[in-house]
Amino acid sequence: MLTAGELSISGRLTNASNATLYGSVTLDGVTLHCVHKPVAGERPLWDFPNGTLAAREVAAYELSQATGWRIVPPTVMREGPWGPGMCQLWIDTPDDDDHGLLALLPEDFDDDPDAEAAAHWRPVLSVELGDGRPAVLAHKADERLRRIAAFDAVVNNADRKGGHLLVGTAEPEHVYGIDHGLTFNVDDKLRTLLWGFSEEPLGDEVRAVLERLDRDLDSGELGGRLTELLDAEEVAATRARIRELLRADRIPGPEGRRRPVPWPPF
């Protein structure tokens, strides 16, 4: 439906950096809502080649599917009213959009390792609240987020903001990640709010998935599909990141990175 359905645009998400359009696709009497980002609406960036962000979003979806984690909603390249661009299934979320995966906690919440908060939350960033009180921005110690942290390390995600994590109304137990235009750079660009898993061992599940990705990039369909969407150097850098993760057997951390947290964080 995303590829062949009739695409109709009804609005624009005005807080997005690049042209991000809301619409629908209709095929054989069935309609789905979608997001469309035309290449023509991409803002030039100094560190990413012009006109490549839509393809990076599709490449992130292809790699997400190869993991089996379904992190990225279905995403395709297609023609639209303003030329080619990416088209992604719209994920409906609750009206309050409070998925409970991020929280502002007292700065001493993890002083007692036996406390419930310390067991269920991972600190990311020290912040100051509007009334001047210190606090800690934290994310849940949740396996769904841990998979996304590993995925982001593979695709070299430079923009994992809090608002890019979605829990949909149709699948309230599933966490999606969106906005993957700033990915697959050959240089290390990893910026995320999921640093709470830093230096933890990969674990059996993540390690098995990375080993499969490494094989698929060498001899499976994944390597060919990414080569259609990215430069050869970017595909090679992706393979190198996977192998370095397997060698280190750790989720990477923010140490040594000049800008490890995206701005704004939400």
Textual characterization of the structure:
- This protein is of the alpha+beta class and 266 residues long.
- The chain has six helices and ten strands; from the N terminus they run E-E-E-H-E-E-E-H-E-E-H-E-E-H-H-H.
- The protein has helices at residues 53-67, 116-120, 143-155, 203-219, 221-229, 232-248, and strands at residues 6-12, 21-27, 30-38, 75-80, 83-89, 102-106, 121-128, 134-140, 165-167, 175-177.
- It has a five-stranded antiparallel β-sheet with strand order 1-2-3-5-4, with helices on one face.
- Helix 4 (203-219) packs across helix 5 (221-229) and helix 4 (203-219) runs antiparallel to helix 6 (232-248).
- The chain is globular and about 55 Å long.
- The two termini are 31 Å apart.
- 33% of the residues are buried.
Structural class label: alpha+beta
The largest pleated sheet is described as:
5 strands, antiparallel
Which of globular, elongated, flat, extended, rod-shaped describes the shape?
A: globular
Number of helices: 6
* Cross-sheet strand order for the largest sheet: 1-2-3-5-4
Low-confidence stretches: none
From the alpha-carbon coordinates, what is the Rg to the nearest angstrom?
19 Å
Task: Give the number of DSSP strands.
Answer: 10
Portion of residues in helices?
Answer: 25-40%
Q: What percentage of amino acids are in beta strands? A: 15-25%
Q: Alpha-carbon distance between the termini?
A: 31 Å
